[in-house]
Every structure is written in structure tokens, then in C-alpha cells.
Design a protein that fits this description.
Oligomer: single chain
Structural class: mainly alpha
Order of helices and strands: HHHHHHHHHHHHHHHHHHHH
Largest sheet: none
Distance between the termini: 17 Å
Shape: globular
Strand content: under 5%
Helix content: over 70%
Radius of gyration: 23 Å
Number of strands: 0
Length: 536
């Protein structure tokens, strides 16, 4: 447990720092291109979705869910797994290069697929951004491959700290843009080739350099790799059978995402794609710091337990990781929910934009807890090398999210929902679909391990709920007393940050006090985690 705690702290500290610099990056980007009511920002957001969406489609589920157990197995080979990893990296690089070249060739068609209602000039700007941003697919893939090899070899720190390099490069590049051109440029007609190249080129350079950083830590893996095109013996048939279902799960998720983007693009010029991206960024901040750092280290142990035939330890492992994640997630839900307007003001050019972003953020926040729990449950399936079952509950979630987006658009068409609330409704529909997905996933996991042993886990989540409700109420009261959305908290970015700290801090103080009154044992776990992260 101590080693897991230290590893989680290293990852959590790195993620916290990278996310903090990522927030600064986003603020500078908004100064360049805007967010709320910015058609140029919507164009950039749609283009920046392409490399991440297709990375998810091609590699994300395979790399994070399948490769780690395979590398853990390969460690028992006489060479420590060097030949296996050499073949794996060579194959991955070839696939990523080919996919990147193909997507760049069909970039204009992809934009039509994602945002068919864009005006011709907005479509042209989006395509220009896409040509500069699509090479990120190659670097995202290589970064994930190298990072998961490091994680599988228990070298956890570099993968979580490297994104800081990307953020610093982007901040510097965007700062140069502001110094040369000024900003924000929210109208499509204000963008020329030079501005597009500097903004989007900087974004891609940052992703490339964060990948290069991992190479400086490769010696710690004690693996000796070289290009190896002899892929026979790598277990492609086994990987392929496992990856097939993961690929299908990602496909249905991406199809739902395309439906959401196509619908939300209808609101371009109001709260649209850019606003959703920044709301998602805020939502993912606590998830990345807590859920990803904890689940990454526990997943390596899960894979080892299953590989060595110690499956009886799986339920206890899942219980520990879920409670470690949820005790934070409930507190963050209460704090961010109460402070949603001042937090959103940091990523908006006006108080009006902050309120619009806060509605979308609220829609996402509803599912912060089940989103983190699902991450653990899904990795439980992957540890058993079962990728088929997660496809089915992922399909249900994606179908419900797409259906919810369609219902939201129909409500707008019928005059029942203002166009400005379309993005918030789509975000809420996605969150509600997660509440259907989670109980399905837990029930199906019972085929592999005794999920009845998780009863204590659900009681713990009940305690967290009891503590989170008064925390949110007190935080919201503080927000209203300080002037609410019409007061100083939403008047500018700096005051928004100060206001968010006061409101969120009040909510967290009540949450911690409530946990102490309930004598929740997880409070001690949370305090130790925070101390480790602070120490790192």
C-alpha cells in the first residue's frame, strides 16, 4: 500500500502541476481566440477534436486497456520484455504514421462530417487549423505507447509530468502571438495563414515535445529497444481479438460524439463547441488529478494479481481505489458546483459567457463521481483481458447520450429550449447516460469477481453524499451573499479566480467537517494522499 500511495502521489502531483499550467494555457488561448460567441474559437475547437477523437478511435482503449497487461506478462521473458516492446513500438509507429497521413488527406471531409452546418468561410478556417493540428495524432499515440510502457515498468512520474512541457511551450507560443498580433480575434475573417500557422503550429509543437521528454527517462525501464518489423510472435492475434471489442466501443463513443458536435455546432455564435470544451476541461481537472493518478497505479497491481492467479485480491483492490477516488470526487462536485460561475469566468470573456459556461459545466458535473468509478470498473475488466463486455455497456451509454442530444435539439426546434442552453442540455444528457452505464458495468463485472464484496464501497459513497449536500448548499449561499453572477465574482478573470477559491474553499471546509463528524475512515486516506502530493 505504501508503494502504491507514493506512486499515486507522484502521478497526482505531476497531473496537478500539468493541469495547473494547462489552465494557464487555456486562459492565454482564450485571450487569442475567445470562447463564448466566437466563431473562430468554434472552428479551432472542432479542428482540435480531430486528432484526439481519432487517437481514441485508433489507440486509446488498446494502449491503456490491453497493452499494459501484455507488457507485464512480457516482463517474465528472459530479456525482460525488450523484444516484445521493440516490436510493439515499431508496429504502433507504423500504424500511427499511416493513420495521420490518411486523415490529413481527407481533412475537409472530416470537417463536413463533424460540423456540416458551418458557413463556407468558417469551414475553410477549420480545415486550415486541421492541417496544422492533425499531426498531433502521431505524437499523442507515441506519447501513450511510451508512457504506458513506463507505467507497466512502474516508472510512473514522467507520464504525468511531461504534459507540463506541452503547456509551457503553448503558453510561450500563444504569448508570442499576442505580442505580434494582439487579440482576441473572434471573427472568422480576421484570421490569415500566418495567424493560423503560429497558433495551431504552436499547439502541435507542444504535443511533440512532451513525447520527446519521455525518452529521457527510458533508461529506467531497463529495456533495450530497436526497430523490429518482425511482428510474428508479438501476439497480434490475441491483441487483435482483445482490441476489436475495444475498437468497437470507441467507435460507438465517437459516433455519439459526432452527433453531439453536429448538434451543438448549430449554436455556433452562442454557447457552442468551444464553451463545451472549456467546461469539459474544468470537469476533467479533478478527475485527472485524482481518478487517473489513483487508478493508474492500482491498474498495474490489478494486472499483476490477475496474471499471477491472485484473483481473490481483485475485489479489495477495486474497493480501495473506488473509495480513494470517490472521497475526493464528491467534495470536488460540491465545491465546483457551488463555484461554477466564478470558475467559468476564468475561461470566458464576459460575465454572460461565464454563466453560459457554468450551465454546461453543471451538466457535466452531475456525473463526476460515476465517471471516476466507471474508470476503475472498466480497468477491472481489462485486467481480466475482457474487452468484449465493456463494449455492451459502452454502447448503451453512447446510444443514450446521442439520443439525449437529439431530444435536446428537438426541444430547441419546438421552442421548448432556448438555443443558448443547447450545449448544457447535451452535457446533461451525457451525464445521465453514465448513471445507466455504471450499474450495468458493476453487475457484469460479477462474472469475473465477487462484486458483492463491494457493498462496503457503496455504503462509503452514501457517507460521501451525506457530506457533500450541505457542502454544496453552504458554498452556494456564500456565492449568493458575495453578489452572485451579477457581482464582483464574475466581473473579470482574476476576481473570478479569487471568488472561486472563497466559494469552493467554504464548500470543501464543510465537506471535510461533515466527513469528520461522520467518522469516515476515508478522510484519513484523503489527508495522507494530499500530504504525499504536496510533498512531491
Amino acid at each position: 500500500m505504501a508503494s502504491l500511495g507514493r506512486a499515486s502521489a507522484i502521478i497526482g502531483a505531476g497531473t496537478l502541476f500539468s493541469r495547473a499550467t494547462g489552465l494557464v494555457r487555456s486562459i492565454v488561448l482564450i485571450a487569442v481566440i475567445g470562447s463564448f460567441q466566437s466563431r473562430a474559437a468554434d472552428a479551432f475547437s472542432v479542428a482540435s477534436q480531430l486528432p484526439t477523437s481519432f487517437y481514441d478511435l485508433l489507440a486509446a482503449g488498446v494502449i491503456t486497456g490491453i497493452i499494459v497487461p501484455q507488457i507485464v506478462k512480457a516482463a517474465s521473458h528472459t530479456d525482460g520484455g525488450s523484444r516484445y516492446v521493440s516490436k510493439l513500438l515499431t508496429l504502433g509507429t507504423v500504424v500511427l504514421v499511416a493513420a495521420t497521413a490518411l486523415l490529413m488527406a481527407i481533412a475537409p471531409l472530416l470537417i463536413i462530417l463533424y460540423a456540416p452546418t458551418m458557413t463556407p468561410d468558417q469551414h475553410a478556417l477549420t480545415v486550415s487549423f486541421a492541417y496544422w493540428l492533425l499531426p498531433q495524432l502521431l505524437f499523442y499515440g507515441l506519447f501513450a505507447l511510451l508512457g504506458e510502457v513506463l507505467n507497466a515498468r512502474k516508472v510512473f512520474g514522467p507520464y504525468s509530468w511531461a504534459p507540463t512541457v506541452n503547456n509551457l511551450v503553448s503558453i510561450a507560443g500563444f504569448g508570442v502571438f499576442l505580442a505580434v498580433f494582439g487579440g482576441p480575434f473572434t471573427a472568422v475573417g480576421e484570421w490569415d495563414a500566418g495567424k493560423v500557422a503560429l497558433l495551431a503550429g504552436t499547439a502541435t509543437l507542444g504535443i511533440a515535445l512532451q513525447t520527446v521528454v519521455l525518452l529521457f527517462f527510458w533508461k529506467r525501464t531497463r529495456l533495450h529497444v530497436r526497430p523490429d518489423f518482425r511482428w510474428r510472435g508479438i501476439g497480434l492475434r490475441q491483441i487483435g481479438s482483445l482490441a476489436w471489442w475495444t475498437f468497437l466501443a470507441v467507435v460507438v463513443g465517437q459516433l455519439a460524439g459526432i452527433v453531439q458536435t453536429r448538434i451543438v455546432t448549430e449554436a455556433s455564435g452562442d454557447a457552442s463547441v468551444a464553451v463545451m470544451q472549456y467546461a469539459w476541461l474544468i470537469f476533467m481537472l479533478p478527475h485527472s488529478i485524482v481518478a487517473m493518478s489513483i487508478s493508474t497505479t492500482y491498474f498495474t497491481r490489478l494486472a499483476e494479481d490477475v496474471t499471477t492467479g491472485r484473483s481473490e485480491r481483485v475485489a479489495a483492490n477495486l474497493d480501495e481505489s473506488i473509495r480513494a477516488i470517490a472521497v475526493f470526487a464528491f467534495g470536488f462536485t460540491a465545491a465546483i458546483g457551488a463555484a461554477s460561475v466564478p470558475i467559468s469566468r476564468i475561461f470566458s470573456n464576459s460575465a454572460e459567457g461565464a454563466v453560459a459556461t457554468a450551465w454546461v459545466l453543471g451538466g457535466y458535473l452531475v456525473a463526476l463521481v460515476p465517471f471516476g468509478v466507471l474508470l476503475v470498473i472498466r480497468r477491472g475488466f481489462f485486467a481480466f483481458q475482457d474487452t468484449r463486455t465493456p463494449f455492451f455497456f459502452s454502447f448503451v451509454q453512447a446510444a443514450l447520450a446521442a439520443l439525449g442530444a437529439g431530444i435536446a435539439w428537438a426541444a430547441v426546434q419546438a421552442g421548448m429550449l432556448p438555443l443558448g442552453f443547447l450545449a448544457a442540455a447535451v452535457a446533461l444528457a451525457q451525464s445521465l447516460s453514465t448513471f445507466v452505464q455504471l450499474p450495468m458495468a458493476v453487475r457484469l463485472l460479477g462474472r469475473h469477481t465477487d462484486t458483492g464484496a463491494l457493498r462496503a464501497t457503496w455504503f462509503a459513497l452514501g457517507r460521501f453524499t451525506v457530506a457533500a449536500v450541505p457542502a454544496f448548499v453552504v458554498g452556494w449561499i456564500v456565492f449568493v451573499v458575495l453578489g452572485g453572477a451579477d457581482g464582483w465574482l464574475a466581473s473579470d478573470r482574476l476576481l473570478g479566480a479569487i471568488g472561486a477559491s472563497i466559494v469552493g474553499g467554504a464548500a470543501l471546509l464543510v465537506y471535510i467537517s461533515a466527513l469528520a463528524l461522520l467518522r469516515a475512515p476515508e478522510l484519513g486516506m484523503a489527508v495522507r494522499t494530499i500530504r504525499r502530493i504536496a510533498g512531491r
